[in-house]
Each structure stands twice: as structure tokens, then as C-alpha cells.
Amino acid sequence: MNGAVRRLARSALSSLAFPSAQACPGSAPGVITSLRALSAARSVSPDECYDVVIVGGGMVGAAVAALLGGNRMTQQMRVAVLDVKPQPLSFTPAPVPGLRVSTITPGSIGVLKAAGAWEEVEALSAPFVDMQVWDAAAPGHIRWSARDLGEERMGVVAENPLLQASLLRAAQRSGGRTEFLWPAELRGLRLPDEQGRPHPGCSHGLAELDLADGRTLVARLVVAADGSASRVRQMAGLRTWGWGYGQRGVVATVSTAEPHVTAFQRFLPTGPLALLPVRGGLSSIVWSTTPEAAAALEALGPREFAAAVNKALLDPPASAASGFAPVSSLAEALGRMVGAGAGGGGGGWREPPRAVELVGSSPKSFPLQLKQAGRFVLPRLALVGDAAHAVHPLAGQGVNLGLGDAGALAEALRGAVAGGSDPGDARLLGEAYEAPRRRAVLAMTAAMDGVKRAFAVQAPPFAAVRGLGLGLINAVGPVRNGIMNYAMMGNT
Amino acid sequence: MALRPSRPVQPATRRLRAPAPPPPGPILAPLRRFLASPSTAASPAAGASVDPREAAKFGALAASWWSPSGPFAPLHALNPARVRFVRESLAACRGGDAGAPEPLKGLRVLDVGCGGGVLSESLARLGASVTGIDVAAASVAVAAAHAGGDPLVAGRVSYRCISAEDLAASGTGGFDAVIASEVLEHVRRPHDFLAVLASLLAPPEASPGAAVIISTINRTPAAWAFAIAGAEYVARVVPPGTHSFKKFVTPQELAIMADASGLKLWHASGMAPLGPGGAWALTGALDVNYIATLRRAGEVQAGGAEGPGAGPGAEAGAGAGAERQ
Ligand SMILES: Cc1cc2nc3c(=O)[nH]c(=O)nc-3n(C[C@H](O)[C@H](O)[C@H](O)COP(=O)(O)OP(=O)(O)OC[C@H]3O[C@@H](n4cnc5c(N)ncnc54)[C@H](O)[C@@H]3O)c2cc1C
């Protein structure tokens, strides 16, 4: 039977594209053991293989590494994090917080806790206990309070470098087998095909990464955490869809007349403006607007900028004129259905504090976009964070979605180790990682894009709907809390 | 390199989609895991060499054993559940730590009817040193080729084209665990088969806590509906004729067979596609697919033969949700 087996083995091997496949010698009937002989040329030893290579040591890549190192089941995985630039393992707070900040939701706090990074983040971030959203074109507001949820806070505002350094340090500390490889630039990537058959250039069925310094890494799973312009995603041939908004986000730090603990967000005809509490009693501004307005804002002096913020936040709403009546009766009908009036309520209006002046770096702006990869996984590849989806940072959900990805991927890999599965198995990644994350990302993208587009329309009837909509939602506690739960947990 | 067959070979018959092995020993333990149906079992054609076109077909087959969307997709879906059972059960048998990343480290495990190696590779990833055997040469070739894809797996598994009976007769044995997953329902004389599996275990002094693990299909109306009518005729996920209802084995019958082989049915768990996204989960109902651990009678106290808490479901011989006919 030996010969037949050898032939079968050879044909199977060649179909799997292993070069120099050899059947093994053996005298016992039907023995075809000695698998190491199968890939005699250019073979890799088990010690050379990484379980997971994470490309990109930003917040999301760091979170994946820290979560794997922090879990008993995945702690033994050999993990490498590589980045084109050396990344900071420590964070020294500057007197004025940096421009790039994120609102961290309770869902993301859970991820940071599991990763072992929460204590450090908590110590150097600013909590917010309320959230208030209102419209510039019509009356009405929504106000959420942590009290309604039985929580001490609704989230924190943290500087991105703090999140990143805390996560990287947690990964280093965890006792896991994590190596940082930087500077290291990715030059080439070889993945199995869609059916999981080995790449023709590999002597094995794993992934290979070529680095600029001539090294080649072998990995069971490649995690693309290299941001919205992901090279890994391009090399894997995955396409994205999406569009720019023709808008820019302006970020700045301001001092205010008094400190506060509310995340304020007002929808202006040109886009939303957020005033968030940050460390040191200061506030962070995230202002989405037209490119012209953004350029003008960036050119303003410290007090002029503050005055522009105050005008945008505090000017009374424009009156909603024509086309009001039908909308109003619709709103009343809705109000009766839910047993509430069409007016405000649900937590009184709170006036945002006045901005005094710009502090720290001068304002910067960046283009807003919506971009999503058509697929988040392939055999031996998973996209996470901005590499998988870049969404309008309207509700500060960019980082939250990315941390949700990291949590789901780490959980999928924990399941893989428990079930003896290959961590690069596309079926496992598709079911345990991609499917839940695609749902979360699509829902978030649709919600944010919908809100954005609804508010971008300036015709009075729409403005009236918006105003009434906000008033109505605010009056109805359970609905309001449901929406907020979704917005704040990020990864339901 | 042209290799001439050194002994009579089992060719793949051209009219078949899947290769059929010869009846290798006193017991036919053939066509493993949906690979082919009993009606396609052909007798060996001695001395025939392998047709290159057949070889190409095996190439296609190789892809399908491991293709995420191929005919073996249900097997891949079931695999993590049975591996979790093995993880927990063997740890409990041996007083090991089921929560360790590689709880089977240092154990010699035999996978009887390994097919394309789906279970063998998982056991290797749990740390075991695995021998996979199957009587279908093509499957063994596929398994070996696939294991070569990952050096860690390649270093921990070896495959042989041999029946359990011939392996036992050759004097090989001494395994810490012998696993026959989705095999029992295909064998002609399950009593004898179980005795052979028991004989392949290492002696008690060398391997206290050694166990035989069987997964199979119960003989209940639900099993008939699910495995025969459902899977074969409606969904066509497995070729019609793969399963013969009469051959299905109830947990009671398994317990009686175990007794005759000096084993005790220690604990059992159902397996059903009830998890999120149709993932298979371990359940307390043994009425369709179930998996059971059999231990040496001398190592489990009569009356005190409690399985680990992790195994929901049956006590020995009295499977919850057992035969309802
Ligand atoms: C100005 C600005 C403000 C934002 N504000 C907010 C906000 O307020 N709230 C919020 O939630 N989100 C915000 N976002 C979005 C948020 O920053 C991103 O969602 C988040 O940074 C994504 O993290 P990431 O780890 O996926 O990618 P990144 O943070 O982009 O990290 C990618 C990493 O990969 C490395 N890398 C890239 N290419 C390679 C390569 N070829 N080889 C190796 N390494 C490589 C890079 O050096 C980098 O370290 C903002 C985005 C911008 C641009």
C-alpha cells in the first residue's frame, strides 16, 4: 500500500502547492509519517513561527497584544507587534493635554480593564457624568446622565498617546510572550488563498511577512492594525468602500470659565461641535465643519477662537418657519403614543461653560471620511481598528469601535486555543470575529452617517423634525436610555 | 520521482467520488466521516497502480477536507465542541488542569478514523503527541499533507493507513487516550471494535486515567430525523447512504459494550448546533450526537463513577434523552 499512499500524498501535496514534497520511507504498511520531510527545502522550525503578528502598534494593535497577554488561555501565544516607528511605552502628561483625545465608553473601559491598562488610563483622564446633545436649528435637547444608568460615570476623555502607551506597557508587563519589533517596515506579505491553500512561495501553509531589513516573519495569524491607509489591507487585495464628507474636523484645547463634567455636543448647520472635559480642568473641542470654515478657525487667535466656540454653542436656535404644521401634528401623535408630550424634559437643560481662550498647541484639522473594508478577515488575516473601518469621529466612536474589535478578536483567539483550532482559521475568524464586528460597525456607521446627513440638511422642515425628534426622545426615558446604552457601549 | 507500489494497493475506483478502502480487518471500519457511503465500498484491486487522473481527484479532495465551505463544513463546525469535551474529560481523568493552554501535553493519543486530520490537528495543538489512523489511503495522504502546513502540528502528529485491528495486532499500543469520533456507527461489530480500542490503551501502571472517547449518533427518532432524513436527504450535506439508522448506537448499548471490554461509561455529553451562528455546543441532551468517555472499570469505583461536572448529561448507562422508541 506504500506506493499508492506515496503517490496520493504527492498529488495531494502538489495540489497544496508544497514544493519538493516527498513521501516518507517506511516499512510498515501504509506508513506516511515523518512530516518534517515534506518540506525539506526552506522549511521553518516551530520556534520560528509567531502565533500572531500585529502590524501597527497604535491604540488598537496595542490593545490586541495586551488582551492576548492578559488572558491565561492566550498568554502562551508568541506575539509580535511591529511598527514603522518606535512607539512610546510610557506617557508623561504635558501641562496642557494633547489635541488627539478619545471619549472612552463603558464598553471600552471593560476592554481596558481586561487588558490591564485601565488604572493607568483612569489616573490621567477626565471623567464625564452627563452628555447633552442639542440642535442649532430648532429647540429641544437630549441629556443623559450616568445616574440614570446607575453608573458613577458615563465614560472618560483620554489622550490617545495615554491610551496607546498604557496598552503597550500592559502588553509588555503581562507575562505573555510579546515582542516589539520597531522600527520595522512591512515590504511584502504572503497569505494562503481563499480556500486556505498555501501561497505558492511558501514551504508551509502559514503567512509570511517580509520586512525592509531583510527579515521574514512566519505567522499563523496576521493582524492588520496599521490604520486607515493600511498597507496590509492593500497587500491582501482587500478593497474598501466609502466616501469623504467634504468636511474637516478641527481639534483644539480651550480653557473655560468654570470646570465641568458634561460632554456637550451641538449640531450646527455645518456639522457637530463637541466640548469635552479633559485633564487639568480644560476642555477639548472637536468641531466638524466645511474646509473653508476649518481654515478660518485654524487661523484665529486664542480669544477669537474661544469667541467662535461660544457663539456656535450659545446662540439661540434659528426659528423653524415653514412646513412646521404637518411635522408638529406627527410629533403630537407620536407623543400620545408614547404617553408623553412633545416637549423637552428628561434632565433639564444645562448651559455649557464659556470658553475663555485656546491653550497648548494651535488648532489642527483633518478630513472626515467614512471608509470600510469589504471584508475583515481572510485565511490568516484579520483587520482591526481603522484598517477595517474609519468612521466619522462624530461621537468619538473611532477608538471605541477599534477597542471593540480588539476585544472580540482576543475572545475569538481564546476560543481557538480552547478548542484546539488554528488561530488563522478563516472560518473561526469569520464566525467569532468578523460577523459580530461587522454588525456593530455597520450599525454605528449607519447611525453616524444618518445623523450626519440628517443634520447636514438645512431646509426648515427637516430642522423642525430634528428639533422635535430630540425633544421627544429626551422625554421618553427608556428610549433615551436605550439609545444611549447603544452609543455608550459601542459594541452591542 | 516514480514510485512503484511495493505491495498491492487500493486504487480509487473511477466511478466513485470518494476513494473506498478495502475491508482491512475483521471489522469494517471504513469510510470515515461522510467520506463515502457503504454502498460505494469496493474490493481492492490488487496490484493496480494509481491513475494520474485519480491522483488529481485526490488533490481536489484534499482541498475539500479542509475547505471552509466544502462538504466537510459540518465536521469543522462540530470539531471545537468535541475538542472541548476531550480537553475537559482527559484533564478530569488524569487530574490535570483543563484551563491550561496545552492540557494534553505529554500524552500519546490515538485518533482512530482520522480522515483528513481535522481532530488530530486540534489534539496536537492541545499538546498531545497524536497518531492518526484511517483505512482510506487518500484521507491519510490529505491529512499528512495538511499537517505539513504548520511545523508545530507536523512535529506532533503522524498518520498511518491502517485499521485499529491491524495496529493492535502489530503490537503497537500504549496510548494514554484512544479516540474514535464518528466511527462507531460505521463499524460492523461495534462490540469487537470497542475491545480493540481498549486493548490499545497503555496499562494502568503506565498510564493511570487512560481513557477511550467515543462520539457517535444515538438511535432515536430525533437522530433519524436529524442525521438521516435531515442531513442526508434534505440538506445533502453528506452523501445519502452514509449513515444506516440500524447501526446507530444508544448510550445504554455503548455502556453495555464498554462493560464487556472492561471499560465503564464514565460520562457523556450531547453535541448540538445550538450556539451562536450555528456553532456546535456541548449539551445535556444525548438524543442525537453524543460523546462519551469510557474508563477502565478498575479505575472508577462502582457507584462512585461520577464524571466531571463539565460533562452535562448522562450517568453511565442511563443517558438523559436516550432512546425514546
Ligand atoms: C485628528 C484625529 C482625531 C480623532 N479624534 C477622535 C476622537 O476624538 N475620538 C475617537 O474615538 N476617535 C478619533 N479619531 C479616530 C482615531 O484616532 C482612530 O480611530 C484610531 O487612532 C485608530 O487606531 P488604530 O490603532 O486602528 O490606527 P492608528 O492609530 O492609525 O495606528 C496605526 C499604527 O500603524 C503603524 N503603521 C502604519 N503603517 C504601517 C506599516 N506599513 N508597517 C508597520 N506599521 C505601520 C503606524 O505607525 C501607527 O502606529 C480621530 C482621528 C484623527 C485622525
Automatic annotation (TrEMBL), chain A:
Associated pathway: Cofactor biosynthesis; ubiquinone biosynthesis
Keyword Cell membrane: no
Main subcellular localisation: mitochondrion
UniProt-listed Enzyme Commission number(s): 1.14.15.45, 1.14.15.46
Highest taxon listed in the record's lineage: Eukaryota
Coiled coil: none
Record localization: Mitochondrion inner membrane
GO cellular component assignments: extrinsic component of mitochondrial inner membrane
Gene that produces this protein: COQ6
Family: Belongs to the UbiH/COQ6 family.
Species this protein is from: Edaphochlamys debaryana
Keyword Transmembrane attached: no
SUPFAM superfamilies: FAD/NAD(P)-binding domain
Protein name: Ubiquinone biosynthesis monooxygenase COQ6, mitochondrial
Catalytic activity: a 4-hydroxy-3-(all-trans-polyprenyl)benzoate + 2 reduced [2Fe-2S]-[ferredoxin] + O2 + 2 H(+) = a 3,4-dihydroxy-5-(all-trans-polyprenyl)benzoate + 2 oxidized [2Fe-2S]-[ferredoxin] + H2O; a 2-methoxy-6-(all-trans-polyprenyl)phenol + 2 reduced [2Fe-2S]-[ferredoxin] + O2 + 2 H(+) = a 2-methoxy-6-(all-trans-polyprenyl)benzene-1,4-diol + 2 oxidized [2Fe-2S]-[ferredoxin] + H2O
BP term (GO), one: xanthophyll biosynthetic process
Residues of the FAD-binding domain: 50-313, 368-444
UniProtKB/TrEMBL annotation, chain B:
Catalytic activity of the protein: a 3,4-dihydroxy-5-(all-trans-polyprenyl)benzoate + S-adenosyl-L-methionine = a 4-hydroxy-3-methoxy-5-(all-trans-polyprenyl)benzoate + S-adenosyl-L-homocysteine + H(+); a 3-demethylubiquinol + S-adenosyl-L-methionine = a ubiquinol + S-adenosyl-L-homocysteine + H(+); a 3-demethylubiquinone + S-adenosyl-L-methionine = a ubiquinone + S-adenosyl-L-homocysteine
Enzyme Commission number: 2.1.1.64, 2.1.1.-, 2.1.1.114
Family: Belongs to the class I-like SAM-binding methyltransferase superfamily. UbiG/COQ3 family.
MF GO annotations: 3-demethylubiquinol 3-O-methyltransferase activity; metal ion binding; polyprenyldihydroxybenzoate methyltransferase activity
Source organism, top-level taxon: Eukaryota
Subunit and interaction comment: Component of a multi-subunit COQ enzyme complex.
PANTHER family: METHYLTRANSFERASE (PTHR43464), UBIQUINONE BIOSYNTHESIS O-METHYLTRANSFERASE, MITOCHONDRIAL (PTHR43464:SF19)
Region (Disordered) location: 1-29, 302-325
Binding site for Mg(2+): E182, E185, H186
UniProt keyword terms in alphabetical order: Magnesium, Membrane, Metal-binding, Methyltransferase, Mitochondrion, Mitochondrion inner membrane, S-adenosyl-L-methionine, Transferase, Ubiquinone biosynthesis
UniProt binding sites for S-adenosyl-L-methionine: R82, G113, D134, S181
Function: O-methyltransferase required for two non-consecutive steps during ubiquinone biosynthesis. Catalyzes the 2 O-methylation of 3,4-dihydroxy-5-(all-trans-polyprenyl)benzoic acid into 4-hydroxy-3-methoxy-5-(all-trans-polyprenyl)benzoic acid. Also catalyzes the last step of ubiquinone biosynthesis by mediating methylation of 3-demethylubiquinone into ubiquinone. Also able to mediate the methylation of 3-demethylubiquinol into ubiquinol.
InterPro entries named among the record's database cross-references: SAM-dependent_MTases_sf, UbiG_MeTrfase
Subcellular locations according to the entry: Mitochondrion inner membrane
Gene Ontology process terms (BP): methylation
Any one annotated GO CC term: extrinsic component of mitochondrial inner membrane
Chief location of this protein within or outside the cell: mitochondrion
Name the UniProt record assigns to this protein: Ubiquinone biosynthesis O-methyltransferase, mitochondrial
Cofactor(s), names only, from the UniProt record: Mg(2+)
Top enzyme category: transferase
Matches recorded under HAMAP family: UbiG (MF_00472)
Topology versus the membrane: Peripheral membrane protein
A Pfam family annotated for this UniProt entry: Methyltransf_23
Compositionally biased tracts (Gly residues): 304-325
